[in-house]
Write a structure and sequence with these properties.
Blueprint: E1 11-14, E2 22-26, E3 29-33, H1 48-71, E4 77-88, E5 101-112, H2 117-127, H3 131-136
Antiparallel strand pairs: 1-2, 2-3, 4-5
Helix pairs in contact: 1-2
């Protein structure tokens, strides 16, 4: 059987059943995900939520930077700071029967450079149009298939 060849847009994650450290293969890149000691991990890599926030932050910065370069605007640096939390969802349809929480991602963006107020506002609008932001704010259908076991 041919070895699995990673391609762009496909990620493989492997982890031993006796721990939480995960090996991530993304194209030619190898990453690691883990949990902090307080959650039973060994703290050797970012948590899955840290990776999710990293995806949003890096996509935001890349998208804004590409737009500013195309417009020849004097943007010198983009900094994106993100955090994740869960809050009780008020006005929820199922609140009477289930504990309902809402996932909240706080994203703060900072644009460095001698930009006008109008340019800064436009860049903020572009930040909200980055592909990962659009994915996270859309309806997501995750289809899971159980594959045959390997010996």
């Amino acid at each position: 059987m041919a070895a699995e060849r990673p391609t762009e847009g496909r990620v493989t994650v492997r982890g031993a059943a006796d721990g939480v450290v995960q090996e991530i293969l993304a194209g030619q890149h190898r990453l690691r995900s883990d949990e902090p000691f307080s959650a039973g991990g060994t703290d050797t890599g970012p948590t899955p939520y840290d990776l999710l926030l990293s995806a949003l932050g890096s996509c935001t910065s890349m998208t804004v930077g590409m737009y500013a370069r195309r417009k020849h605007w004097p943007l010198t640096r983009v900094t994106v700071r993100l955090s994740h939390s869960r809050v009780h969802a008020r006005d929820c349809v199922v609140c009477d029967t289930e504990q309902a929480t809402l996932t909240v991602i706080d994203r703060n963006v900072e644009f460095d450079g001698p930009l006008t107020d109008e340019q800064r506002e436009r860049l903020l609008a572009i930040a909200n149009r980055c592909p990962v932001h659009l994915t996270l704010t859309s309806v997501i259908d995750i289809r899971t298939t159980l594959l045959p076991a390997h010996s």
